[in-house]
Amino acid sequence: MxxxxxxxxxxxxxxxxxxxxxxxxxxxxxxxIVEHGPHALSLRAVARDLGMTVQALYHxxxxxxxxxxxxxxxxFEDLADAVQFAVDRAHEDPSVPRLVHAAEGYRxxxxxxxxxxxxxxxxxxxxxxxxxxxxxxxxVQRMSGIFQRELFAGYSMEQLAAADMxxxxxxxxxxxxxxxxxxxxxxPPSGVHLLLNAWGRMHGLVVLEVFGHTSFLGGHQGEVFQxxxxxxxxxxxxxxxxxx
Length: 244
Prior knowledge:
Arc Repressor Mutant, subunit A, 12 helices, 2 domains
């Protein structure tokens, strides 16, 4: 047995049971969201669906906010998994840019899970605020990191800084300088512009489709999305071409 094996802590039976119960609660809460929408979520409703008392549920989630935070975190993690899975399969069709594969993973997850997509990107839940720097922030940073990596693959920070973008105001530069280096704070202002513009274009099309605003396109919605994402990649690379 190696020293590492000897020091590995095995979860106790109580801890394993708690982990299982926690997953059951989250599953029930997600089903409730699918059936009734994010704004109808309550601890009482989830407890009732599980045959528990609200008091018993409080042993696992101290408040409605704690439950929402866990649900939002899990949704973002599942979305990031879907995006990464799409990127990992990009080699199957190398004619399509990897960023387009990532965007397709994002779109497909949103279409398959519209209520959970609404939970994390729809109207804010009344009275809820995500804990600053908490698990939801970390989950968002993971997903953002995938898109940043695929959008800027092959380009240095110096090239991003020299991209063909409007010059950021002194006020914006000062604000960006206060951001965490683990997220957008690691990029120069022009890189932030490029990433946010790209995400806005991608996310906007997905929102329109998920909420039924592009249904007039019928079965061509996927084609419109893929062409738009290909144009997005071309636009970003054109703006970066002057920096090479």
